[in-house]
Write a structure and sequence with these properties.
Length: 86
């Protein structure tokens, strides 16, 4: 995927994850993009190891993996910092 598609994909995945977490107002669009991209990396790594799935493009499976990774990253970050989420 090109860099523009990564940004769009990250923004979409991060936005959905932030809506699920209730943190959309606090983190803004840059936070959503970063959350989605990191979520895609984490989710893709875990999915490739455990489920033999990968983030291969702009499709529903990749989006769900990225959202799951974003939720996991946000949860782990809240444990480390003691704050609610990203």
């Amino acid at each position: 995927m090109g860099i523009v598609l990564w940004l769009i994909f990250g923004a979409l995945a991060g936005w959905i994850a932030s809506l699920l977490l209730g943190t959309n107002r606090e983190q803004g669009w840059i936070g959503n993009i970063l959350l989605g991209i990191v979520g895609a990396l984490i989710g893709g790594f875990i999915a490739s190891r455990l489920l033999d799935k990968s983030v291969t493009g702009f499709n529903l499976t990749s989006l769900l993996i990225a959202i799951g990774g974003a939720l996991l990253f946000s949860w782990a970050l809240s444990l480390l910092t003691g704050r609610r989420a990203v």
